[in-house]
Amino acid sequence: MSSATEPTEPLSVEQLSATTLLRFATAGSVDDGKSTLVGRLLHDSKSVLTDQLEAVERVSADRGQDTPDLALLTDGLRAEREQGITIDVAYRYFATARRRFILADTPGHVQYTRNMVTGASTADLAVVLVDARNGVIEQTRRHAAVAALLRVPHVVLAVNKMDLVGYRESVFAAIAEEFTAYASELGVPEITTIPISALAGDNVVEPSANMDWYGGPTVLEHLETVPVSHDLAHCHARLPVQYVIRPQTAEHPDYRGYAGQIAAGTFRVGESVTVLPSGRTSRIAGIDLLGTPVDIAWTPQSVTLLLTDDIDVSRGDLLVPSKDAPPTTQDVEATVCHVADQPLTVGHRVLLKHGTRTVKAIVKDIPSRLTLDDLSLHPHPGRLAANDIGRVKIRTAEPLPLDSYADSRRTGAFILIDPSDGTTLTAGMVGESFAAPQPVKDEGDEDGWDF
Question: Which one of 191, 268, 294, 437 is separated from 75 by 20 to 30 angstroms, measured CA to CA?
Answer without folding.
Answer: 191
